[in-house]
Structure formats: C-alpha cells, structure tokens
Amino acid sequence: MKELSIFVDESGDFGEYKQHAPYYIVTMVFHDQSNDISSNITKLNNALRQIGYGDEQAVHTEPLIRREPPYQYFQPNERRAIFAKLYYFTLNCDIKYKSFVFRKAEYQDCFKLEARMARDLSRFIRDNLSYFQGFQKVILYYDNGQHELNRILNTVLATQLAEYDIRKVIPSEYRLFQVADLICTLELLRVKAEYGKLSNSEERIFHSVRDLKKDFLKGIHKKEF
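-> structure tokens emitted (225 positions)
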C-alpha cells in the first residue's frame, strides 16, 4: 500500500489580531513512505549528539534563534550548527514541501484569514489531486497546537480527499515535523528580509540577509513542491 505522510506546522497565531505576529505561515512537508529516510535520521541524530544536543530532543528553531530554553546555554555558533544540521538533513531527504504565507494586515479579522487559508489549501490539493490520489493512504501529522488550523486542515482534507487519517504528533518523535518547523522559520525570515531586516538574534545566527539567502534560502527552495 502506497502511503503519504503530511507533516504540518505553523508560525504565528490568531490571537491579538494584526498587532502580534504579523504573518501566519503554514508549512506542509510531504513524505512518500516508500522512500526510506531512516539512514538520514540516524546520521542527523549522530551529528546532533556530537555537538552536545541529544538525539531524543526536538529541534525548535524559533527558540533556538532567540536563545530561549533549552538553548540558553548554547553559543551562537553552536545554535547555528544545530540549525544547519537539521537544514542539511532536510536537503538530503527525499521529501517535498509547500508553504503558505499570509500577511494578517490584509484581512479584516481572523475569520477572513481562516477563510482565505482554507481556500488556498483546498486549491493546492485540488490542483495536485492526481499526486494525492496516487496514494492508497494519506496520514496528516499535526500537534494540534492551534485549534483553528486543526479545524481548517480537517475541513480541507475531508472536502478534497476520499479518505485520510490524522495523528497527533509529539514533536520529539518525528524529525519531519521538526523540518516543517524549520521551513516555517525560514519562510518567516524570507519575508522579514524582504520587507525589513533581521533582528539582532537572527543576525547572530545568520549574519546578514545576504548570507541567509546564500546559505539557507536558496537551497531550501529546491525542495518546494
């Protein structure tokens, strides 16, 4: 049975509409289970262990950049190394991704935003329906972090696909869920770089907008669906 796993993560929220987190980003990572990535996972775990980060720990990229727990004792070069290990793992895995970026100021309220998100996600699946119909089983992995997004995902999949399953993710157990987190962060950095500049915390990890584009953004877009 051909199986597709879809790992979903988000950056942003629906609270304090427009004032807080000006962008809402949803990333879907697609993995055809017939493509074995177990050796890639082993290599990543070994690499993280060598730089003092346990392979049983999830990599959460936004706290990592901001030096928040559990990264408060890591130096900038160590945090960049953790980020880079997950990044190169992403490049070396046979996966695809699709990100949806929404600028909250363009929508009157959270209900308008939710409606637009549902339309865009539905259109993407509909436009690529032959790809999704090539799998006998589709499983969506999400951590149920935001009930609004959880509701949108269920509605979209129920409308567009004949059958699917949903499983709640524990982030530390799925490296591809962490990949979705990484891509959300890179997409947020991309739009921030286009409309402004990097924060001091971001510059400590990525050095400059030019280096960010050269070292990370250029490569990750090769994995885009």
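The mean pLDDT is 93.
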